[in-house]
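User: I'm new to structure prediction. If I give you an amino acid sequence, what do you actually give back? Let's try with this one:
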Amino acid sequence: MFHALFRICREEGGRALYSGIAPALLRQASYGTIKIGIYQSLKRLFVDRMEDETLLINVICGVVSGVISSALANPTDVLKIRMQAQGSLFQGGMIGSFIDIYQQEGTRGLWRGVVPTAQRAAIVVGVELPVYDITKKHLILSGLMGDTILAHFVSSFTCGLAGAIASNPVDVVRTRMMNQRAIVGSTELYRGTLDGLVKTWKSEGFFALYKGFWPNWLRLGPWNIIFFITYEQLKRLPF
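Assistant: Good question. You get back a string of structure tokens that encode the predicted 3D arrangement of the chain. For your 239 residues, that looks like this:
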């Protein structure tokens, strides 16, 4: 990971580390907002109090909210991955790039890889949000911690690790499927997520499915900690 970090900085400059930052920010603004909104709304349809929530209810709500939010935000994910893969070779701004993809590949181009993206989101959100809620619930109800920033930190750290472990195999295949149009032209390497998982395992071994795990966790971990601590504090505002 650090070798790749230094090599990118040396060959392409520090700005290359932030390739795709604009669509990434747009994706988080849309995906994250829709995800947490649907998740909390669905939970309130089942139970009214945190104490009554169960793991099954939270998982169902997480899976549904992950699928819907990721499907809606998929075009931003496609652009982000292509900008990161092509680095300095990528030309044009964000809006122009959306238009170019649409003109060259049609609507399907913007939603390329939407199935593995939704599957990945179902896994990530179906693991992260329930793990956060259940961890926080037990920390508070057991008396180990109060409803404090420390409890939010421990819960978010735990859910980030769980999400990275659960999602990395699908993440590897999803990234390859989204980027295969830009790399190999019209030839598709994988017909679907399961096909990609099987082919990767057979040709490269099981641990190939966990390529990029550490940077994945280093991304998910801090993101979840910042997100949940901020979210919990915003919930306490008097409006």
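You can read the tokens as a compact description of the fold. Here is one thing that stands out. The mean pLDDT is 83.
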